[in-house]
Design a protein that fits this description.
Helix 1 (22-31) links the parallel strand 1 and strand 2 (36-43). The chain is of the alpha/beta class. The chain is built from 16 helices and 8 strands. The two termini are 37 Å apart.
Length: 338
């Protein structure tokens, strides 16, 4: 079992439903060894009563890796935290940010911001069972409970139960009237509230999330908080991660897009041998050539070919040749991080 209590929290990739699965995480790890990665949210019932391995299995190369849990029953959350630690996860995170109707019906996600005692009880029960960090990802607030004092009261209450790490999406959530997608875009970003929280609670580790797209955004936020978490931009333009590695972590000898594809192919082959459909492994690659000549042809060819359940690794080889044959494409020997 691998435990990492001293995780570098300067940069992480957000947990995203239907996106940050094990294939996506493996690809991201090829590009960014230092980043902290998160699973999709997994509800406690799936772990306790479902096909546990289906939801928890991961490749050892994905470390450091956090499991995000959805739930609100302290005993169930504690049991799942212990399972996560035994499974080899480096952190377990409580989802207090998702605003979907399904999540609200299960009494977890963003609606828990109105129940800080319940969240505190979960944190306390989980910490009694594990050595790995128990963290919370939340919003600025919900509905009309959206001023800074509401956020501060929530954080103080949960921190008193032993939570030392908070990831704050710098928007509130409207639990009625907005879809999950709209809740990622419509409520205004209020970064200053997250900065203020860090100034007033210097003892806590505060990571900021929401609307972060560029390395310049990351650098600016790190002047005020301990870490930044990027979500949707990672799958729109995953190669931009390498710019973050270079400027924030001082990494050198960064791989090109072509090299990333070549390093990912053996993983895809291993998954194909286990009867996993190609489309699941290629989905996180679609934006890899974003902004480069041939990017549209790369995406279109892959999307057309992977519809066939018998599609094999030749699809990637052919797609790569389509890009490389474009006379405007910057070859792997001269490509720079964009």
């Amino acid at each position: 079992m691998m435990l990492m209590n001293n995780i570098d929290r300067r940069f992480s990739v957000a947990p995203m439903m239907d996106w940050t699965d094990k294939h996506c995480r493996y690809l991201l790890r090829l590009m960014f060894p230092e980043a902290l990665l998160y699973t999709e949210m997994v509800v406690t019932g799936a772990i306790l009563y479902g096909e546990r391995a289906r939801f928890l299995d991961f490749n050892a190369a994905e470390h450091p890796l956090a499991l995000q849990l959805g739930g609100s029953d302290p005993a169930e959350m504690a049991a799942c935290a212990r399972i996560a630690q035994d499974w080899g996860y480096n952190e377990v995170n409580i989802n207090v940010g998702c605003p979907s109707d399904r999540v609200q019906a299960g009494i977890f996600g963003a609606c828990l911001m109105a129940q800080p005692q319940r969240v505190a009880d979960c944190v306390r029960a989980m910490r009694d069972q594990v050595e790995i960090p128990v963290t919370v990802k939340c919003r600025l607030g919900i509905d009309d409970m959206d001023d800074y004092d509401d956020l501060r009261r929530f954080v103080d209450h949960v921190a008193a139960a032993g939570c030392e790490v908070f990831i704050v999406h710098a928007r509130k959530a409207w639990l009625q009237g907005l879809s999950p997608k709209e809740n990622r875009e419509v409520p205004p970003l209020m970064y200053d509230n997250v900065y203020r929280l860090k100034r007033e609670r210097t003892d806590l580790s505060i990571t900021i999330n929401g609307g972060i797209k560029t390395v310049d955004d990351c650098v600016e936020h790190l002047n005020h908080v301990d870490g930044v978490m990027i979500g949707r931009e990672v799958y729109n333009n995953p190669f931009a991660l390498l710019d973050v590695r270079r400027q924030i972590f001082g990494a050198t000898n960064l791989p090109s897009r072509v090299e990333i594809v070549e390093r990912y192919i053996p993983y895809i082959e291993s998954q194909l041998a286990n009867d996993v459909f190609l489309k699941y492994m290629t989905r996180p690659m679609l934006g890899l050539f974003q902004g480069m000549p041939g990017a549209r042809h790369w995406r279109r060819y892959i999307c057309e070919q992977v519809c066939n359940k018998t599609a094999g690794i030749n699809v990637l080889h052919n797609a790569l040749q389509i890009v490389l044959r474009n006379p405007e494409f910057v070859s792997s020997s001269t490509e720079v991080v964009s």
